[in-house]
């Protein structure tokens, strides 16, 4: 019989509505043989249980498939899984997530739950402007989930931010400086 340990955690406990919710899943092979977790039996080797604070399950939006995972004896691996595309966090509230590892012929191993909150946030800064002759007006907003929580910038796209830094290096630095004041 395979001996597998699974644990989950999040980098932080508060997330904005529709923001990426990363779950860190650590799988450890505590058995005496090498372990290969894969999707050969027709269902995924890793799945998740997500519930609201009132213990009502959150319906998965789509099934996830994960690459096979090989673990040597005593080895641990940590996977970063984005839960947002898998579950619909469309409401504010308290949630709890658990990882489930399916070992064919041996049953399932369920991790302890990790609690997290999904919040609407509060707008603390907005900048609207035209950055290049070809681009339309763009709006950047900063949101803070709580008075002491981290700032999330909405409206940034990696390519757009790169172009902004390349086209207007001084303006970009000024914008980043003002962002760090919050």
Defining key terms:
disordered C terminus, mainly beta, five-stranded mixed beta sheet, 182 residues, Immunoglobulin-like, three-stranded antiparallel beta sheet, 13 strands
User: What is the beta-strand fraction?
Assistant: 35-45%
Distance between the termini: 53 Å
Helix/strand order:
EEEEEEEEEEEEEHH
> SS-based structural class?
mainly beta
Number of helices: 2
Q: Give the count of structural domains.
A: 2
Query: How many whole angstroms does the radius of gyration measure?
Result: 21 Å
Mean pLDDT: 76
In short:
The chain is mostly beta strands and 182 residues long. The protein contains two helices and 13 strands; from the N terminus they run βββββββββββββαα.
Description of the structure:
This protein is mainly β and 182 residues long. Helices cover 12% and strands 42% of the residues. The protein contains two helices and 13 strands. Strands 2, 5, 8, 9 and 10 form a five-stranded mixed sheet that branches. A three-stranded antiparallel sheet has the order 1-3-7, with no helix packed on it. A hairpin with a 7-residue loop joins strand 12 (138-144) and strand 13. It is elongated and about 60 Å long.
């Amino acid at each position: 019989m395979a001996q597998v340990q699974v644990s989950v955690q999040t980098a932080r406990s508060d997330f904005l509505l529709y923001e990426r919710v990363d779950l860190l899943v650590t799988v450890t092979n505590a058995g005496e043989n090498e372990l290969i977790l894969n999707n050969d039996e027709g269902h995924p080797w890793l799945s998740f249980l997500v519930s609201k604070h009132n213990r009502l399950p959150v319906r998965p939006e789509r099934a996830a498939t994960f690459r096979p995972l090989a673990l040597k004896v005593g080895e641990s691996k940590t996977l970063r899984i984005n839960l947002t595309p898998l579950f619909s966090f469309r409401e504010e509230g308290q949630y709890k997530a658990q990882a489930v590892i399916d070992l064919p012929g041996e049953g399932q191993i369920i991790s302890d739950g990790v609690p997290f909150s999904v919040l609407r946030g509060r707008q603390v800064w907005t900048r609207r402007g035209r950055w290049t002759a070809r681009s339309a007006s763009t709006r950047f907003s900063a949101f803070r989930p709580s008075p002491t929580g981290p700032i999330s910038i909405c409206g940034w796209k990696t390519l757009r931010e790169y172009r902004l830094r390349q086209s207007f290096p001084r303006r970009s630095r000024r914008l980043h400086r003002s962002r760090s004041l919050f």
